[in-house]
Amino acid sequence: MINKDMKFFIVGLGLLGGAYAKALKKNGYTVYAADINEDSIEYALENNIIDEGAVSDYNSLIEKADVIISGLYPTAMIEWLKENQKYFKKGCIITDVSGVKKGIADKVQGFLSEDFEFISSHPMAGKEVSGVRNSDENIFKIANFIITPTEKNTSEGIKFARELGEILGFRNITQLSLEEHDKMIGFVSQLTHVIAVSLMNTNDNTHLVEYTGDSFRDLTRIAKINEVLWSELFLLNKEILVKEIDDFAAELNNFREKLVNEDVEGMKKLFIQSTERRKLFDRKDVKNRK
């Protein structure tokens, strides 16, 4: 499906877009890119991350591309695709890195010409920094790649997405529906970010920086957050995330009641259950590192 003659165009050369570009170049593919930041394009060209790039007037690059990868925020991607699909090569495949799918992937497939195929995917990878200068294709080696097809996708399109995940070097490649993806992401990613942000905002804890241990640092690592992107992602998945917050609050109150009532056995049961559930993730990590 994917061959060495295929040319990739990445719009949005940030942390993930840059990592995609590095992985594709390392594997011998031609990579073009566009970004609103001229410094990002210049850096990528100087460091051989892309073959050609532009801040504006990049229509000729789009026209040469067999694959278009959107590294844009979800709503910005929709507008960009609407505006630029007139330049797409017939048979072009489009994919994305969006953290929310329902209302995004189906909307794109609703207006995109039948000459092209949009197959949505989500690289479950990232860092607490941004920009192509901080991009690193090695983050994919320990990460999951989720393909989220709809009934409008072809078997060839799904096969393409799987091959792309393999080329990029993801540890694990799976497939979910749009609904399954957003429910999953509401719990494992969005809720965890809400918890980290809430913990940092519980009180002014900056004076504890000289005393804190690894547990606090580990729990709040993802509290360093892009306020524009994550506000958008949370609102796009509002219904699911609100339910996850409510469920977490109920479990937190459950623990509080056991503590208030000095229910030692009840707390021990919760500790044992959480330990056993966490072990499942440890075993999977070990298995996938072999």
Question: Which structural class fits the helix and strand makeup?
Answer: alpha/beta
| Shape, per Cα inertia axes | elongated
| Main β-sheet, spatial strand arrangement | 3-2-1-4-5-6
How many β-strand runs?
Answer: 9
Keywords: Oxidoreductase
GO biological process, one term: tyrosine biosynthetic process
GO molecular function: NAD+ binding; prephenate dehydrogenase (NAD+) activity; prephenate dehydrogenase (NADP+) activity
Protein name: Prephenate/arogenate dehydrogenase domain-containing protein
Description:
This protein has a six-stranded parallel sheet with strand order 3-2-1-4-5-6. A three-stranded mixed sheet has the order 7-8-9, with helices on one face. With 290 residues, it is α/β, with parallel strands linked by helices. Helices cover 51% and strands 12% of the residues. One of its GO terms (biological process) is tyrosine biosynthetic process.
